[in-house]
Amino acid sequence: xxxKVLVVDQQKCTGCRQCELVCSVYHTGSSNxxxxxxxxxxxxxxxxxxxxxxxxxxxAYCLEVCPTKACHxxxxxxxxxxxxxxxxxxxxxxxxACPFDHPFFDVTERVTVKCDYCDGDPQCVAFCYAKAVFFAxxxxxxxxxxxxxxxxxxxxxxxxx
Amino acid sequence: xxxxxxPIHPIRTMxxxxxxxxxxxxxxxxxxxxxxxxxxxxxxxxxxxxxxPSSVVxxxxxxxxxxxxxxxxxxxxxxxxxxxxxLDLGIKKRFLYACLNPxxxxxxxxxxxxxxxxxxxxxxxxxxxxxxxWLHAESGLWYIPEVIAFAFAFGTxxxxxxxxxxxxxxxxWNTYFLPLLFLVSALSTGSMAIVLSTLGSGLFPHDATxxxxxxxxxxxxxxxxxIVLYLYLSRRYRASEQGKDxxxxxxxxxxxxxxxxxxxLLGFIFPFVLESIASFYHGNVxxxxxxxxxxxxxxxxxxxxxxxAGIKEQIPMQRxxxxxxxxxxMN
Lengths: 161, 331
Prior knowledge:
heterodimer, A: alpha+beta, two-stranded antiparallel ribbon, 27% helix, B: mainly alpha, two-stranded antiparallel sheet, globular, disordered N terminus
């Protein structure tokens, strides 16, 4: 099976927060964005919206710091990093370690939760009408091109600063 | 044109100036008790090795060596502190799972370090305080567990800092100065705790040479702690943007009462002044007592201040969103 990744196109995001709603409904059964696994950060006054998702990092800090191995990688399911609800003790160390502010503490279940790609059918992708979030094959994401663009971007930042 | 302060970049929202709120006062109590317990055990063991105090009293027909009890009670404090860590867990009854991943996780390693220290420390405390004949308390073999417990006491004191250092995305914590600061603070509060317990139990008269040496050592440790604290904060201030924010938050922002009132006044200035006054009055016991209690409070506020001022590094996309904003402004 081809490995897939969640990709965000920030330019398309309208900040409607539909993804937060469907995510919480899918995972918890309650329509409560505070329990969602995707968070949209808004800079309302300048009109910038940034949906933050788990990157399932290759070198995942959450996985490293987890004292119980509840946070683990599943190579067979898109190489995702997930937290085993039955092992998590809710110590919040992974929340502190993640540079993306990702795993969230679920106050109802008393454990830490994170994006699990909805077992291969991400609901945020299915319901995002602006198509700002999509689930694509990892090799089709053209890593080379992206790196080139990133380097260009780095150069331009250096010129600006 | 009037004076205008430079506005915060509109993209740098409050989120980035907000300190973490996941670890609060419960963790601070745990860090403090573990540090002070380990520090007092280190100082107490050194005294036990070199001074050999002993004063056996009989309670309910049982012999009890109060001198050893007054020196080696540190593990009890650590054992009281550890449940606070459990109290902070989401699902408390699963706390035993916390030792499952010592290969990469410092929380798991800490669980093991603390457990070994508590077990060895409590056994040694029981053995020293209850001089039963069948324990062969004078046997040289007891040095082996004593050295192990001594080493793990250092481990416990350092671990309280390493636990925070392992959080790489909070620049205020991600430095080797933090374990060092917590170790020195553990030793200074620990030696003060030993001074209080030896004076309180009437083990030494308040003008005994041992007590004077202890108090002198404690004052030196407090000075070293102040220097390390200064170095730590100044390095963190220069380390990164969020390190700077953290230090500013602690020194001039919301947390300034914890820093100036709790850490500086209670932890450094008051005890120092009171002890200096006490030395004029031939070591007045009440002055030493009050300065000790104040110093111990300062140790707690040091942990609370460092914990509550930890600001996460900005998300990697932050620079990019700022760039987006600048582009829009140009067009």
